[in-house]
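BACKBONE STRUCTURE TOKENS:
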Amino acid sequence: MPLLGTPSVVYTIPPLASVGLQENDATMQGLKFKTNKASTTDWYSSKRVGEDHTGFKVMIEQNTDRILGAHLFGPNSEEVINIFALAIRFGLKSAELKQAIYSYPTNSSDVEYML
């Protein structure tokens, strides 16, 4: 099954956004991957808007460095998820996203720390 890179968003406060595979789906497909996940409550992007509950999970395939899935919860997740959707749809590697230059201070600039 190809990874289409179609994001979905639940417009809560803060928003919850997802694209790509869930962790259990990737495991069932026999994919080998690492999972980066953390609370981002202490990150500047959350602190500056007073958000107490934020976080992310990003799954990266071990052999190819491609992004299998991303799941975000926090301010502007509905926008940031589009970066991960493009990476999945066009096969961008995690290392390529890390090399991008993001405007700061924005939630998009947090992407490199999620990888």
Q: What stands out?
A: The radius of gyration is 13 Å. The longest strand covers residues 33-39. The chain has one domain: 8-114.
